[in-house]
Design brief:
heterodimer, A: mainly alpha, Ribonucleotide Reductase, subunit A, 2 domains, 58% helix, B: alpha/beta, Nonspecific Lipid-transfer Protein, Chain A, five-stranded mixed beta sheet, 6 helices, 37% helix
């Protein structure tokens, strides 16, 4: 009978506590390291090999810039910026450290299997990480919640339904990078750090819309099955690049436009601030996705094959996203907010039509920028067809 | 509130915003980096006989440079904010009257439908910087509430 006490991680040396114990008991390298360390300590000897920088770099001072002491500057001015196209070390030894002498003793981290840089890198990822840190905000204290004003019930319900949608979808952009982040070796720390910043951003977005839904006397309203299928399709992505395209370029690009629309249609200053700040974060994620796609296509060993797979994936991905986009739980509250009330929902649909066309054109522009033209292939109508 | 009156459009008007930003480092540090070259095009309209173009360079937490241009592309801007003079005037008057842009005069509000303000770029990633730095840009323009503006018409 299966042990149901714990859910297994499914990676590493075993899928049960017994297997883990057996593996670590049998792996004698770490026990040998410990024995050597203990014997040295008993002898009262010092090792002091860390005082030597043989094989490393020592003595280069880096000054902070106006941005502070950034990875951009550190990587530009020191050997830490030498980034291999494929990770040789599948462990947590930092890039630029003295690590070769220890190679034979190092364990292999079996979950570090995304070893090729082109599967997650973007030329902008280092500066985007620094920007992400600099532009953090706090959903509890940076939004002027005390200024939230009563609005008519139909508008409040629309605002709450829109907030419910965003509460439901936003953290997929936290869950998705978390699935892949721990598979990227430490060699590419900056990419991992950027993904960590995206997870933090998305936690804040889910938080702020969850709070907004109840803050003005409303509440969370309806979830959508169409949204859930799109979210599942993103999380089920068969590779980091494919999923990043669907999440960061397609889905987040559309949500970025929705945040712009949210700021545009906001009926209170509180809502305006929420959407404006979320828009900033989302634009960073979109920028990473676009530039990663470009990097991937420029460095994939077989570009033609990569394009073929990407297009096949996008053909279906766009249709799944279309399912979410056509949900009445999204379109109708947007139309009510744009029209200024339930009685003006038809006029509001004109705004939705404009937003739809804007979203699609911006998506196509970003695909073009990445070298992945979808203009003749896109499966989502570029004009609102309903 | 500064006891000065500055003509719009002019290089001095944008320099006033620059000085206000650079004297309020703590607020802009809290908002985060802005690394962008931005061109502002004030199209001829309602008494402004010829278009006026300015280039603003932001770096980290400061406004580094303001210059008058003959063409927006002169500074290889990441994005261009373009609107008729009357739109800029109304936005600035609104900021002055309310202490900041009200709900219908924010930069995003004015530009989302592409009218009356248009934010454009030759590079979609450049245009995305308008979104990435929007809060800082809004507060930069909201500082126009802190001095008097004299309009050319």
């Amino acid at each position: 009978m299966a042990d149901t006490t714990f859910t297994s991680m499914g990676k590493g040396p075993g899928t049960s506590a017994e297997e883990w114990i057996r593996f670590y008991n049998a792996a004698d390298i770490w026990q040998g390291i410990r024995r050597g360390n203990e014997e040295r300590l008993k002898r009262g000897e010092f090792d002091l090999r860390w005082l030597k920088s043989d094989g490393g770099v020592w003595g280069l001072k880096v000054e902070p810039t106006a941005h502070g002491m950034t990875f951009v500057e550190i990587n530009r001015r020191t050997h830490l910026g030498e980034i291999a196209d494929e990770a040789e070390h599948r462990n947590m030894a930092p890039r630029g450290s003295i690590r070769d002498p220890y190679k034979d003793q190092m364990p292999e981290f079996t979950h570090y299997d995304l070893t090729r840089k082109h599967e997650f890198w973007s030329d902008s990822v280092v500066s985007l990480y620094e920007e992400a840190k600099a532009r953090q905000w706090n959903a509890s204290t940076d939004i002027p919640w005390q200024e939230l004003e009563p609005i008519s019930e139909d508008l409040e319900r629309a605002a709450c339904q829109f907030a419910t949608f965003l509460n439901e979808v936003e953290f997929v952009a936290g869950d998705f990078p978390s699935i892949w982040m721990h598979r990227i070796p430490n060699e590419y720390f900056e990419a991992k750090a950027f993904l960590a910043s995206q997870i933090t951003d998305e936690a804040r977005h889910a938080e702020v819309f969850r709070k907004r839904a109840v803050a003005n006397g409303g509440g969370l309203l309806h979830v959508g099955a169409g949204f859930e299928w799109a979210l599942k399709a993103i999380l089920d992505a068969p590779s980091h690049t494919l999923g990043t395209f669907m999440l960061n370029v397609l889905a987040e690009g559309l949500v970025l436009s929705m945040f712009r629309a949210g700021e545009f249609i906001a009926k209170t200053r509180v809502d305006k601030e929420i959407f404006r700040r979320c828009m900033q974060d989302e634009a960073r994620h979109v920028s990473y996705g676009t530039m990663h796609l470009k990097y991937f296509l420029e460095h994939a060993p077989d570009r033609a094959k990569a394009l073929e797979v990407m297009h096949g994936y996008a053909d279906v991905g766009e249709q799944v996203i279309l399912t979410a986009l056509t949900e009445p739980l999204l379109l109708e509250p947007l139309a009510v907010l744009m029209g200024g009330g339930l009685k003006n929902i038809d006029q509001g649909m004109d705004g939705v039509r404009f937003l739809w066309a804007t979203m699609m054109e911006e998506y196509l522009q970003r695909c073009d920028r990445a070298g992945f033209s979808r203009r003749d292939l896109i499966k989502i109508p570029t004009e609102f067809p309903y | 509130m500064l006891d000065v009156r500055v003509r719009f459009p002019s290089k001095e008007w944008f320099e006033s915003l620059r000085d206000l930003m650079n004297s309020d480092a703590e607020r802009y540090r809290h908002l985060g980096y802005v690394d962008a070259r931005v061109a502002l095009l004030i199209a001829a309209d309602e008494g402004l006989e010829a278009p006026a173009v300015y280039g603003i360079t932001f770096e980290a937490f400061r406004c580094m440079d303001v210059r008058e241009l003959s063409d927006p592309r002169e500074i290889d801007p990441e994005f261009v904010m373009e609107a008729p003079y009357g739109v800029w005037k109304e936005m600035i008057e609104n900021i002055r009257a309310n202490g900041r842009a009200d709900l219908t005069h924010t930069l995003n509000y004015l530009s989302l439908p592409n009218i009356p303000m248009r934010v454009w770029s030759d590079d979609p990633l450049g245009r995305d910087k308008f979104f990435r730095y929007n809060q800082s840009l809004q507060e930069f323009f909201d500082d126009a509430s802190r001095f008097s503006t004299e309009f050319v018409a």
